[in-house]
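Trying the structure run again after the queue cleared.
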Amino acid sequence: MRLSVPALALLAMLSPGAFAAPSLELAETVPAGTTLDDPTIPDAQQAWLELIGSATTRIDISQFYLAPGPDGASRLQPVLELIEKKAKKGVKVRFLIDANFRASDWDAIKKLEGTKNIDVMRFDLKAITGGVQHAKYFLVDGTAAWIGSQNFDWRSLEHVQELGFTLREPTAVADLQKVFELDWALASGQTPAAASRDVPPPAQPPTTVGSYGDQDITLALVASPDSLLPPGVRWDLPLILDAIDKADKSVRVQIMSYAIVGYDKSYWDDLDRALRRAAARGVDVELLVADWSMSKKSQPVLKSLAVMPHLTVKFMAIPQPEGTFIEYGRVVHAKYMVVDGHFSWVGTSNWSRDYFASSRNVGIVVEGASLATKLDGWFEHNWTSEYAELVRPGRRYHAPPRTARDLERERNRPKPGVDNGDDDDE
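Done. Tokens:
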């Protein structure tokens, strides 16, 4: 039985030493009909509704796109209705969204724009850095925030495996607010002062003390790209690389996509080389990707990793519901890393150059066994699940169809993991 967010909060209050809300609380999305649920982690929709419902003055939302889904039937609809309800009661809402992504439901966005106290800003980051507004977060009253892999997409709350967290540590929340204010200003056409001044040294470890469960952790908000960091906010990439290079026993990564050739066709292997260095030192490296990564262009690098001693690669395939097909759904989309059972990163970036060098993403890095142990358990559940399959260098794979059109074209192809000699890309 899944515990609700309020029930977990009550248990936390009854725990020794837990007189204040923890700095960090995980929440998940479990694809309907699967066995991936962790009953000790709240449902993301519940976390969203509770956090938004607590707003008294303002809600600041930064999202890649908006896709409400079937009218009145999706799990995103109550979230949007609550935002509108809050706005009508006087809560000021600012909604920042990527200006160019074609998946957005622009009619739904126009509806938000027509609601009193809701301002929508289209952020054309492509014109500034060549990237996209890929971050997925929102802030409430400047005192609490949500960061996660979930887009504002109905599928992200019921048909995609996702992971995120509620954040209440004041320094980290303030840093996230600075990211939002910078992006809102840029989207408004303003020219803020140089963004990257007073940024901490690249691999400076987190120093802010917070809590997860009933144990202390140290944490820091991180973001990308490095050219658009507000004062005091760290770039995520150097901290991720530093953690991998310092790994002694284990590195566990779950990501949707992993590539060494970016959308701009440039070659970039910083993360790839770090994983290989760790494995060469005898560190046990486990990499878990989505079956969407099993395309022709991505397979070679994943297979080349899989041949290395101490380095294991798997992909996860989430089956479609019987009798229907969910476009752009039924995939694992969480993005996190755990090192040596002590260091954790949870964020919104997939692992290729674009996400760190040109697109806006955010996340958190944490030192402390309590969160790392929880993430290790979540990883292990996925790694050993019926949906995970070992990447074998001698086999040929293909990515599953994402749209109905793809499905029709691929109807006669086997499921991922079966070799039929077909070499077409997805």
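The radius of gyration is 21 Å. Worth checking whether this holds up in the mutant runs.
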